[in-house]
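Q: My labmate handed me this sequence with no annotations at all. I'd like to see what the chain might look like in three dimensions before we decide whether it's worth expressing. Could you predict it?
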Amino acid sequence: MNSALTSSPSEAISEKEISHTESTVSTANGEKAKNSSFFEEAQDNSSIGTHLIIDMWGAHKLRDSKYIEQTIKNCVNAAGATLLHYHTHKFNLNGGISGLAILAESHISIHTWPEMNYAAFDIFTCGSAKPSNVIAVLEEAFEPDKINFITHLRGSRD
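A: Here is what I predict for the chain of 158 residues:
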């Protein structure tokens, strides 16, 4: 099942912290999701892992390779994952950055468009890693005006 959540930067991950702001949780076909949980993470053997896709608008610090690398490493730690390798490419002096963290549990990628204050992230994990934990790290690091994300259980036969 796919679900989507639109949130503002003042919202945090737990329901307690976001009770002051409205959020929309919906299925891929636009219907309201039955599960009130914001994140759908693999808890059993029904899927291989969880893929979290994040879009950020109005984000900051998108040209700083070292800052982005440290933020991605903080995401790895927050998810409880194991970093195997990290690589970035900066496109030009004022251009965007693409980065990839190879994890024992899968990967985290980032692509930035600083001229648009936009960043895209993919977090795919399996095992006991918790990809939803990275949203608070990314929100604090990049201070976006808006965050959209979807979760998808990969390898599910349902």
